[in-house]
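Forwarding the complex inputs:
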Amino acid sequence: MEISKSYFADERHGDFKEIGQSRQRSDTAGHVRGITPFYADRRFPGLLHLRMVRSPHHHARILRIDTTAAERHPGVKRVITAKDVPHNVYTVLSLINIGPEDEPVLAFDKVRWLGEPVAAVVADSERSAHEAAASVRVDYEELPAVFDVEDALKPGAPLVNEYHGQNYYRYDSGASRKVRLGDVEAGFQKADHILEERYDSSPIEHAPTETTGCIAVPDQNNRLTCYTGTQAIFFTLDNASIILDVPGQRLHFVGGTAGGGFGGKVDCTVEPITLLAAMLTGRPVAFIYNRYEEMQISSARAAERIYIKDGLTKDGRIVARRVRCYVDSGAYSRHSPYGAQKAAAHFPGPYTIPNVEIDCYCVYTNRTPSSAMRGFGVTIADFALEVQMDKLARLVAMDPLEFRFINAYRDGDMKAHRQLTEGAALIECMQEASAWANWPVDSRYLKMSSRERKG
Amino acid sequence: MTKVPVQMTVNGEERAEFVDSGMTLLKFLRDKIGDLTAKAGCLQGTCGTCTVLIDGEPRLACITLVEDCRGGTIETVAGLAADAELHPLQQALLDHFAAQCGFCTPGMLMAAKALLDSNPHPDRAEVEDALSGNICRCTGYEPIIRAVLSVSTSNARRDTAERGAV
Amino acid sequence: MTLSYQTFSDPQAASRFLAERPEAWLLGGGTILVRRVNEGDISISTYVRLLTPELKQIHVADNTVRLGAGVTMATIAKTPVLAFLAPVARSIGGPGVRSAATVGGNLFARSPHGDFGVALLVLDAVVCIEGPEGCNELDLETFFKSRRQLAHGSIVTAVRFRRPMPENFRFIKISRVKPNGAAVLSIAALLSRTEGHVSAARIALGAMANTPVRAHNLEAALRETALTPREIERAVVSAAADTTPSSDAIASEWYRKAVLPVHLRRLLST
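Prediction (whole assembly, three chains):
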């Protein structure tokens, strides 16, 4: 591995000791021996198995939940419904004061997505749990459902989440996270070309090889230990504390090893209910997603719809950019208000544009709640932005890399968020990429610098 | 509960247990005898994390009944290393950065072992076929394939040297 | 209800046992049945294992091949006298699946799976079905049309076919995941030629309907031709009439319809 030290040479102080060296991961020796302790790699005498009864409807009122047959089923220790959960309606980001609480641990008055948890059956074998779960009777009254982000925002659309009162997350800035700089309409007037495009992405499932799950164990000193594959261990402990209404010091979370996370194991969908089951039965309880649940039920990267309208001069400068981004949060917030906010901060991309208008909406639909995945809020935005840049370059018959050199931000440029650019390095990255990818650009671009605007 | 006796050899050790009828080999290994190396990634027979060897053949333990394994010879990752010294495949995966989260690693090792035990110097296509039932979501497969090929190469070198020495 | 496992060495006894119990199922490699139990299918409570030696045997006599229903894909792939079927057997999943998946089980696999059945279909295979009263034979095409109506308790014990001239047999399986992914579609072809013209044509398609199907229209269009590029081009269009592909996680109905003629043309042109 080579480090290109010629760039920003005056800012470098000495050599790297670790970066650029080949180093063994600390956990590989355990992996190849098969001794890495994933959460399920533990045995407990008397272990019970939790099987979740889930909504078969996208959107429905719950009229009645009848668990009597399940409770009497051989091997069943407990059937848990909403009334058993001390603090049933929560939201993960309440820990950082982002509310309102909008998601039930177990549904009670309605279900808002296909697969929403309704009742938890806890039994002494997986087979008993499956059989008992099949005997739970729930009476639903189906409601019209909405699956498209723009349809959800139209007047008359079915209301997905009553805790919000409308089908979008209300930021302090209103229905969207807003970024405003200059006057885009004036910019469009000055432009020689206008390009308006729409970009769509689907929900993307992380599909880790290890499924989501945990094992909760009543432990000494009136504590409960939770072995979990979560990527968000402290976050989940704190949310469990709120949901179970137990002080945090009674909870002991053991984890830090996920068989693939990628952002898909940051919601606390399994730990609180499993801990509750352990508390109510006095026994260790395992709740392990099967492969169907991992693919369909666990959160995915949010689907996004992005409209970009650009005004371009004939010499290849973007003079105005308007972005409208709709993030499909599914039925509940989870991390999506934060993801949509990140998107607003990320648009219009690493380019200097004098007139910018950005609106990012976090929209509720009757789909599986989405959540984090590898750069959420940013990754899909970049897909849209960079495809747009290629199309713009073609409009003015320019090389797509050279086009980016012209528009790249430099130190001292005003960004759309009213912050001055500092520490920019896009120019230098593109110069290096041009060489490595054997994509030559005109020599004047190789003389450019992020530190000052020339050319 | 109908408990039935099963007896087989696991990693060279004779095992005899009473099990619930219909138990899978995976559950037997993990819950009955405490060998946690084979994993339950899908329980569908599609991800390969439960791959073990039965009489030298690669098999998916999650869809194999332990009652069908009576008298069989089972091999798992727990039996690969000779105490402190790693099996060449384990060392090769270590040297080639061929594990990240590590969940697919036991399945990959046993699938590769099945190949190398019957074909000591496979080519790339044969390695890809041998690992085609094992899913990895982290490495992109290339480091694992290279690791297995490195063992193939050193097997070939060793066999050539042995032949030369004769 | 707890699971149980019963073994039988007599097919008729097994058949009678199964016929009386809707919760009892015959076990092959486990790729379909044990998977369903793992995933929570509580309609299955008893596994039935048939242990007759013939189930795992391959007999070849006078160019007739008899495959026991319990013969695995792995075994077929390394049987020299069945070398022409090795590419088919090797395409049925990865090594772990191939060590377990059986000839009999593959006949019941749901589309887009079941590619070994596609090959057997062009070989005009006959299926031996054991019932409580005894053994019956059914041609494979009829079997596929009626397999969901088979009496519970029917057991496929073997398939029989005539060994073709290996050079007349062709097979391709198109997958997105390589190698050994599930089929977008698969095609088996058995073409005999006399003096450069097609004297007999059998084409079977996988993942293009809810079972493997024969492409009768295409077969008729190919007969008597010399398999020139122009004749192939004209003929492959007629295959669509024999197909009703579905959309699934592997491919859409539209895509399967669109690429079938492309892969047919390539296979017939080799």
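The radius of gyration of chain C is 19 Å.
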